[in-house]
Structure formats: structure tokens, C-alpha cells
Amino acid sequence: MTVKKVKLIEHLSISPYTVTACYRRQGECLELSFNIEGDMSSIVFPELKNRPIRQHNLWQHTCFEVFLQSPMSKNYLELNLSPHGPWQCYEFSSYRKNRAESLKVISVRSQNFQGKNSYRCSFALNFFEEGILLYTQIKPACVLKSKQQLTYWSTEHSSTKPDFHAPCGYQAL
To answer: Do the beta carbons of residue 7 and residue 19 sit within 8 Å?
Structure first.
């Protein structure tokens, strides 16, 4: 399957970074990479973990996210992916309703590379059975934590407050 690339837009357009996301579906796996261009010295990355474990509240730090949905249903998945190991997957029945931990993703592998002016983090998400096939739309997003603040990046922003759960900005998977 072809790799697709999308530029993420910062909610307030106040930081000096460029962020892009690339993705493709390979069988029961979703491959994602997030690329940040700019001076990396002010971004705060979480502490490295020895193994990928499930963890809550990853969005309070530098974190990559992906939302998956099917246009035939209101339910969607939210995946939170720390650049240094921890991850979490939630399922919602509709916009921000009935959040529950999802078991549709069974494993996450990550690799990252940091240079002086660039950062790349790649993920391979393995889904239970054919779980990925249920979703035909994707919305990559990320939170970058600097020494001063959090910034929010997505394919589209529809309100004055950042809201990755908003139904806008999905791309074909």
C-alpha cells in the first residue's frame, strides 16, 4: 500500500516547527511516522522507558496521536503514542462519549531519531485480527511540549480551543 503524507497545522501558529505525518496500512498493521523540523533544543521529550507499556495521560507531554474512524459509524479509536515507549488506545461510541480502553491494538513498536534540527518517530501498530480493516479514515495529531508550553498539531482545527476529537480533518486511510 502507498505511503500517504500530510502536513499538521499548529492550533495557534506560534512555534517555529514544521510537523508532518506519514502513514500506510500493511495487512493488520498500521505504520506511522511523525517528522518534526526545527530547533529541537526547546522540545521536552519524556523519559525513555525500557518497554512499551500502556499508560494514561500521555497527552500531557510530547505525544503523537492518531484517530481512526469509519464513515459508516460514530465510534472511533484514539491512540496516544509516546516517542519513548508508553502508549494507550481508547474507543469512543461517539464524539467524546463512553471512553473505554480498547483491546483492538495488541502491540506497538517504535523507533526514533533526533538530530539538531529534526526529529522522526516511527510506529508500527499491530491490530487484533482484522481490526484495522474496520477503519477507513485517519487523523494524525500531536502535542509538543516545550519548556514554555504545550502546542497542538492536527490536520485541521475547527474551534478556538484545540480539539483532536472534532470530526473534521480525517484523511482516507
So the answer is: yes
Task: Give domain limits for the chain.
Answer: 4-172
> Which three cell numbers mark 131?
481490526
Are the C-beta atoms of residues 19 and 155 closer than 8 Å to each other? no
> pTM of the full predicted structure?
0.93
Q: What is residue 146's DSSP assignment?
A: B
Determine whether domain 4-172 maps to CATH 3.30.870.10.
Answer: no
Q: Tens place of pLDDT for every residue, the chain, 173 residues? A: 689 999 999 998 888 899 999 999 988 889 999 999 999 988 998 877 767 789 999 989 999 999 999 888 888 999 999 988 899 999 999 989 999 999 888 889 888 898 889 999 999 999 886 677 778 899 999 999 988 889 999 999 988 889 999 989 999 98
CA distances (Å), origin 97, targets 11, 30, 90:
23, 25, 11
**CB neighbours of residue 166 within 10 Å:** 18
Q: Which of 162, 87, 150 is nearest to 121 (CA)?
A: 87
